[in-house]
Specification:
The complex is a heterodimer of chains A (115) and B (110). By secondary structure, chain A is mostly beta strands. Chain A has strands at 4-7, 10-13, 19-25, 31-38, 42-51, 54-57, 64-66, 76-78, 87-94, 105-106, 110-114. Chain A is globular, with a radius of gyration of 13 Å. The mean pLDDT of chain A is 93. Chain B is an all-beta fold and 110 residues long. In chain B, strands 2, 4, 5, 9, 10 and 11 form a 6-stranded mixed beta sheet that branches. In chain B, strands 1-3-8-7-6 form a 5-stranded antiparallel beta sheet, with no helix packed on it. Classes of the chains: A mainly beta (115), B mainly beta (110). Chain A binds chain B through residues 31, 33, 35, 40-45, 48, 50, 56, 58-59, 90, 96, 99-104, 106-109, and chain B through 4, 8, 31-32, 34, 42-46, 49, 87, 91, 93-94, 96-103.
């Protein structure tokens, strides 16, 4: 099993460009999520999904879109990149029976710089 | 007030030392608790879940105090390989999301 994979590992964008960060998992997890991590801020939840076709906003959703057409994939789209979106982005997935979240498995991250 | 608060450190300790981290959380109805470990420039990985009765995994012991709303992690006989950032994580009731603390950095020195 590959676990959670993310592409690309590194990306540099100019202000105003758009791009999609890819995330895939092969553990058949229903729950998937995107976080950003900034120095001193910890991980902050951007969007999450509890199954194919179901997504919801997290703590910092502005400037990002997500979709979940399959159980395996959960791409994150930056609509119009801004320097404030310079960060490390982590995708995670977990088994989630009911309302309780169990261990989240993280991808290796995407380091994004917006100039 | 942050939902999950941790002392950022760094904690600099010699090999073999015992070190303890505390974390406080604001949502009294939170239902599950975890400690994650994050190495420099890597993804977070689960270190251990925290149960109401307290739990131990080798050199690591986690405790939960619901009345005072804090979680602790004790590391005994520290190894150089324990150097990392330790993240306190809480799942607030009714929310399908984990809330992460900013992390406590541990540096174990030879």
């Amino acid at each position: 099993n590959a676990g959670v994979t993310q592409t690309p590992k590194f990306q540099v964008l100019k202000t105003g460009q758009s791009m999609t960060l890819q995330c895939a998992q092969d553990m058949n997890h229903e729950y998937m999520s995107w976080y950003r991590q900034d120095p001193g801020m910890g991980l902050r939840l951007i969007h999450y999904s509890v199954g194919a076709g179901i997504t919801d906003q997290g703590e910092v959703p502005n400037g990002y879109n997500v979709s979940r057409s399959t159980t395996e994939d959960f791409p994150l789209r930056l609509l119009s990149a801004a320097p404030s979106q310079t960060s490390v982005y982590f995708c995670a997935s977990s088994f989630q029976p009911g309302q309780t979240l169990y261990e989240q498995y993280f991808g290796p991250g995407t380091r994004l710089t917006v100039t | 007030r942050k939902e999950v608060e941790q002392d950022p450190g760094p904690f600099n300790v010699p090999e073999g030392a015992t070190v303890a981290f505390n974390c406080t959380y604001s949502n009294s109805a939170s239902q599950s608790f975890f400690w994650y470990r994050q190495d420099c420039r890597k993804e977070p990985k689960l270190l251990m879940s925290v149960y109401s009765s307290g739990n131990e995994d080798g050199r690591f012991t986690a405790q939960l105090n619901r009345a005072s709303q804090y979680i602790s992690l004790l590391i005994r006989d520290s190894k150089l390989s324990d150097s990392a950032t330790y993240l306190c994580v809480v799942n607030p009731t009714g929310r399908r999301a984990l809330t992460f603390g900013s992390g406590t950095r541990l540096q174990v020195q030879p």
